[in-house]
Amino acid sequence: MKCALVTGGSRGIGRAVCLKMASRGYYVLINYKGNQAAAEETLAAVRELGSDGEIMQFDVADADNVQQVLGTWIEQQTEKYIEVLVNNAGIREDVLMYWMKNEQWKDVLRASLDGFFFVTKQVLNGMLLKRYGRIVNMVSLSGLKGTAGQVNYSAAKAGVIGATKALAQEVAKRGITVNAVAPGFIQTDMTAGLNEKELAAQIPMNRFGKAEEVAETVSFLASKGAAYITGEVINVNGGLYS
Ligand code: NAP
């Protein structure tokens, strides 16, 4: 049975990706860190679409935790295997560099960059053996152009972009593609505290994007039809930067 693992699948963009993968018939592994109720809601929505899945709690930034939960799950499977991995979990802790604490630097890098490494490492071997796989990493406009007040977040996402391009070259011969999606401003909990009206005025499309609009791009990159695209970063930002 083909599975799609979505880290940070409980809410926001990750939830929209889970539903998209469910609609394409995947058994969806919904990772979350702490919000079990939200993860359960995503699973219920997956089932309403006629697919199935399970919730999987682990902190992507904790190597031991990823090994214990995801590594053990993979070891125990006889029929299920992960064909699609979406490294979506991430946090932001915005503050000007001058005031940034070591923890704020580390926490943001750990969630996005360490998270990419720890999770992908568990999943990659299975893909190499099957000679097929789709890895999609959620980065950001900030990782491409840099954003003031987000030195930590911009560095984390730029790091994942570099890793995406390098890994893409390592595994291309094995039928595995590795790409990134770079959203601009998307309506989720992460952007709930921002002044949407003011920021939307800077966006050519004059609005924030929807999580579903990001999920569409992820779904395309995760499809068989995207076989000849790898090491690429696709912007989903309403024309803000392209
Ligand atoms: P969100 O609504 O805040 O949701 C974050 C998700 O990540 C939640 O499911 C959360 O789990 C999970 N998560 C956070 N840290 C984790 C960890 N250490 N281990 C496992 N799961 C973890 O965020 P979002 O807006 O959907 O963002 C999703 C991704 O898109 C992030 O990588 C973000 O950087 C990127 N992005 C977002 C925007 C935007 O405008 N929203 C723009 C560019 C890029 P819990 O529910 O358990 O807390």
From TrEMBL:
Q: Which UniProt keywords apply?
A: Oxidoreductase
Keyword Glycosyltransferase belongs to the record? no
- Domain Ketoreductase, chain residue ranges per copy: 2-189
Q: Which GO terms describe its molecular function?
A: oxidoreductase activity
Q: Which InterPro entries match?
A: KR_dom (IPR057326), NAD(P)-bd_dom_sf (IPR036291), SDR (IPR050259), SDR_fam (IPR002347)
Q: Which PANTHER family match?
A: 3-OXOACYL-(ACYL-CARRIER-PROTEIN) REDUCTASE (PTHR42879), 3-OXOACYL-[ACYL-CARRIER-PROTEIN] REDUCTASE FABG (PTHR42879:SF2)
Family, per the entry? Belongs to the short-chain dehydrogenases/reductases (SDR) family.
Q: Sorted alphabetically, which NCBIfam families does this protein's record hold?
A: PRK05653.1-5, PRK12826.1-2
Q: What is this protein called?
A: 3-oxoacyl-ACP reductase FabG
Annotated organism of origin: Chitinophaga caeni
Q: What is the lineage of its organism?
A: Bacteria, Pseudomonadati, Bacteroidota, Chitinophagia, Chitinophagales
